[in-house]
Amino acid sequence: MIIELKKGIGAERANQIAKENNAFLIEKTDKFVLISSSGQKTLDPKYNDETLATFVFDNDMQLSSRQYLNETRAVKIGNVTIGGNSKNTLLIAGPCSVESEAQIQESSALLKSLNLTTLRGGCYKPRTSPYSFQGLGLEGLKLLKKMNEEHGLTVITEVRDATHVQEVIEYSDVIQVGAKAMYDQGILRACAKTQKPVLIKRGFGTTLQEFVQCAEFVLSGGNENVVLCERGIRTFETKTRFTLDLCGVSYLKEHTNLPVVLDPSHAMGHAYGVPDLTRACIAMGIDGLLIEVHPTPKLAKSDASQQLNHEEFKALVKTLQPVAAAVGMNIV
Amino acid sequence: MIIELKKGIGAERANQIAKENNAFLIEKTDKFVLISSSGQKTLDPKYNDETLATFVFDNDMQLSSRQYLNETRAVKIGNVTIGGNSKNTLLIAGPCSVESEAQIQESSALLKSLNLTTLRGGCYKPRTSPYSFQGLGLEGLKLLKKMNEEHGLTVITEVRDATHVQEVIEYSDVIQVGAKAMYDQGILRACAKTQKPVLIKRGFGTTLQEFVQCAEFVLSGGNENVVLCERGIRTFETKTRFTLDLCGVSYLKEHTNLPVVLDPSHAMGHAYGVPDLTRACIAMGIDGLLIEVHPTPKLAKSDASQQLNHEEFKALVKTLQPVAAAVGMNIV
Amino acid sequence: MIIELKKGIGAERANQIAKENNAFLIEKTDKFVLISSSGQKTLDPKYNDETLATFVFDNDMQLSSRQYLNETRAVKIGNVTIGGNSKNTLLIAGPCSVESEAQIQESSALLKSLNLTTLRGGCYKPRTSPYSFQGLGLEGLKLLKKMNEEHGLTVITEVRDATHVQEVIEYSDVIQVGAKAMYDQGILRACAKTQKPVLIKRGFGTTLQEFVQCAEFVLSGGNENVVLCERGIRTFETKTRFTLDLCGVSYLKEHTNLPVVLDPSHAMGHAYGVPDLTRACIAMGIDGLLIEVHPTPKLAKSDASQQLNHEEFKALVKTLQPVAAAVGMNIV
Amino acid sequence: MIIELKKGIGAERANQIAKENNAFLIEKTDKFVLISSSGQKTLDPKYNDETLATFVFDNDMQLSSRQYLNETRAVKIGNVTIGGNSKNTLLIAGPCSVESEAQIQESSALLKSLNLTTLRGGCYKPRTSPYSFQGLGLEGLKLLKKMNEEHGLTVITEVRDATHVQEVIEYSDVIQVGAKAMYDQGILRACAKTQKPVLIKRGFGTTLQEFVQCAEFVLSGGNENVVLCERGIRTFETKTRFTLDLCGVSYLKEHTNLPVVLDPSHAMGHAYGVPDLTRACIAMGIDGLLIEVHPTPKLAKSDASQQLNHEEFKALVKTLQPVAAAVGMNIV
Known about the structure:
Four copies of one chain form a homotetramer. With 332 residues, chain A is α/β, with parallel strands linked by helices. Chain A has two domains: 2-55; 75-331, TIM Barrel (Alpha-Beta Barrel). The first copy, chain A, has helices at residues 11-20, 101-113, 138-151, 165-171, 185-192, 208-221, 246-255, 264-268, 274-283, 310-326, and strands spanning 2-5, 24-27, 32-35, 51-55, 75-77, 80-82, 88-94, 118-120, 154-159, 174-177, 198-201, 226-230, 260-262, 288-292, 330-331. Chain A has an eight-stranded parallel barrel with strand order 7-8-9-10-11-12-13-14, surrounded by seven helices. In chain A, β11 (198-201), α6 and β12 (226-230) form a beta-alpha-beta unit. In chain A, α2 (101-113) runs parallel beside α3, α5 (185-192) packs across α6 and α9 (274-283) runs parallel beside α10 (310-326). Chain A binds chain B through residues 205, 207-209, 232-233, 235-251, 253-254, 267-268, 270, 272-273, 276-277, 279-285, 319, 322-323, 325-327, and chain B through 205, 207-209, 232-233, 235-251, 253-254, 267-268, 270, 272-273, 276-277, 279-285, 319, 322-323, 325-327.
């Protein structure tokens, strides 16, 4: 149950009502919102005069639910809006890891030549092994910042763990919470305290319900600029790296009010499947894409097999607008 | 290793070579083909004069492999060709179960009004419970045959188990081997003895390797008209009925020479997701689709929640050709 | 809802009541039982005089449910009873495939030397590839029959598909419905028409609910001698062949009235893990075990890596009785 | 490849050799160890005079591998040793969450009455929803510390995220890295800097290879007191909360040198299955168990359904020693 209180109800009274109803209190700019997860289905009539609206529902979602807000929230990524009435599908691209200034300059030039606006690149890599390349860290963040300043590109990079969450919030335009970090309440609560957009990747073993609850940590903490990213779940099939869950995307589009971005590169794990999957994602009418592209994939320090090279990427981009147009969307 | 023997090598000698190499012998119209799964990598030079071609490969496929035949096989479904150079995406539609003549006449009329050619409908239902509706059986097959004769529709229906495989082969234009029956060698070997097209559905717990091996039972048994159908795999996610594995479809397109059909209705399990998923499948450039549509889904005797009604289906069909065109395909 | 009718109600009237309630009718020796899967929760009071007992429940089980029969059914395997009050854990052992008389004689001698009574061996192998060894077929069945006649061993072998179900029913003492065949209603219905014990293996992608429903096909068809066998499910983990689902076994023990047998050999896929897992299974207090043992595993024509050799098996057997005793059971 | 350098090689030279071989350098008390994940299989002969031992292997493990150290490492938990030659199975018990001093005193009294030494209790709960009880935090840690001081109990509690890792290291005797936090390199690296034992829970979507790599972060960082904990993986089966992976435990026992603890409570998710599963785990010959027990489970603020009450727990404990004895182990 979500209860919105009337304007003018003060913080003290709001707290009191929350306590009396065992509810979680959220202070918005102009009102107080209470969320009760107790299964309670009605509010005592004595609160009627103080209540603006009550949303009663059974599902596993609250602020992210279509029953609470029946539209896709608009989120601004740099100068581009996704969700809302935008009809935009934002194509985010770049290498798996930021490896050097030369490399990331090449990536930036590629994006500029294609009129793309948003550059991705990992600085803190959540590698399985402690003995592998772990990313450039702060040096990488500074290179991304430089790309933003020199080329006007919006940059997005991943928080791997809490040790560097403040740095990423400071340097990056969009904060990506990685698939292995998305249960981390410390990171989620830190992201709730900024107004920068937060892209949360679904863990590969994470149910849709748990995934959406991670967004609730950010939404309820004060940042409404949340984007969900499906990037493949782990199944019994091992011929591909993960299994891109487009049925799950249908569920998210139907039941949540959050924009949805897809990452076919990580799901597939092999460059050969990325073009077909990218087009399939666009035909779903989704809000954005994350595609890995590297000047020389074979030399990449991480995820070499799934990154497109620049020629492959250019060829792919040419084919996307017609698919988007066929479903009433626009590639930006 | 696949070894093609020269024309003119007689059956006796072919058998002898097969035996000497512990290989499986296939007699084609004009030649003998030997398949060795022993891991053997070369043929003794003494056979050189009798050998037309040798295909050595490491993967889990043989006749269905791109290394053996580097193109998509053409398969004729009624008057329509899929695969090959056809650029066709065949839209197969109809109710989950054939329930009555009135119902299947309505379905047929719907297809005709949309210029669609191929009608699906289950007669032997692989229901989980013995206490549920099990399908009309032979009566249903006869109704499908009638639709073929009255309306010229190509009909496809499922073999649930071996008790009725001969009936389905006799009455149906395309034989569908169901997801729960696809490991059944008795059924697969029976399908190998007809020349009618066989559409094999992937089991929901079946790896891509096992899936393709089922096709090998039919291909090696003498029927080359085999079509693969992905219809969702079982994962930890339960908000949707199954998880449509489009990464797996990318794998099949890259590594096999068989046409691929998709069934988003069963994967999703909820009508609301079917339109988006159908468009995503088409954007993959696949060879066909199976969509469930019922005059009054709420009254359906099986799979009520996932079937579109006729209005929803018509609205969907209107949106498909632009997506197909965007990827160079044609809806038929 | 299960409704038992009073003795003396004739077949005609029973049929009428079934029809009026849209229920499935089962004729037992001394009474009629009706099963309604319609969600109906009460019977019209007009039937009160004809009703012996009514079992109303919400779960996915009927005749196999603890709510219908709150005890483990006793099933006789040769001269040994499992389930009921027997406190027996039956150790079934033998090679993956019957390969030759010499081999199966060796296996029989091993069992006799250890006072074991029940020999397993596959004759129709559900191999993934059509190009692999497919089993000795009828010749293998005859060899098993010979072991029964010469050594008094109870023999169990697998039905792979419907082409040989009658042969297996004729030659084998216990009919095993394989993990890939367990959805096959033709096989299940054939098994319902014998009174020989039927051991149903859980498919590796099969939910517990579907698994138990397969047993319902046999139970409702007239054969109450049904045993469930858990043999590992398919998960994302590939270091082991499957994942033995002992949590699922706890569920089956709590909610069903059927004996449960475990097959750690197939679950693990590697001989090294079989001893520990066998002891774990026994400590669960289960009704039986299927263990693969081969005179020379390296030369086995199927599943070479998971079979114990005779020395390993003897060493294992020595350790089992103390574990069984610790949980109040007896290895037989 | 792991390379141990001879004693007396200085830090500078060790660093140089590491750099020349692109290897990760670990400084132990008495020697330097280099780990190369490059796939390199031999060391240049020029280093022969400086090399003590070289371990070349293909698997996914390094310091945790049986090929590097072919025994189970001994780890001291309070006054009790597990692993090594101890033959101990440590029974760790307590409530899911520390809720109040009264509750945790009751839990402590229970343990003392059963001569158990190690108390578990969560202070920072990794709840799915931000609107649920999140744990007592530091107040809970202080209560655990009090139990340690008053009753001499060894206490273990979970790190949920990096915001409180230092507090847990300070207050708890054993640091538990939770299933949702186990990929967190910040936490793992912090745990590497203490010498307190670290129990790492396997993520429910985590492969065995990834799981062991998490241990490598701690081992390579300087703390060798690492214990692995299997607590159920997420599969398609939903009748139980998770699926306890005992096949995986067999793999870990065979291939790693780390002690293994099991948590059947979380795997099962229902109290009814915990006794059977606990006995099964013990029969595997494992090093420890985590069992959830609560004075009044129905009132528990988290995981109410899976916690045993005190009477059930006492009844369970009575049955464990015979099972342990049957496999040569001792419950402590």
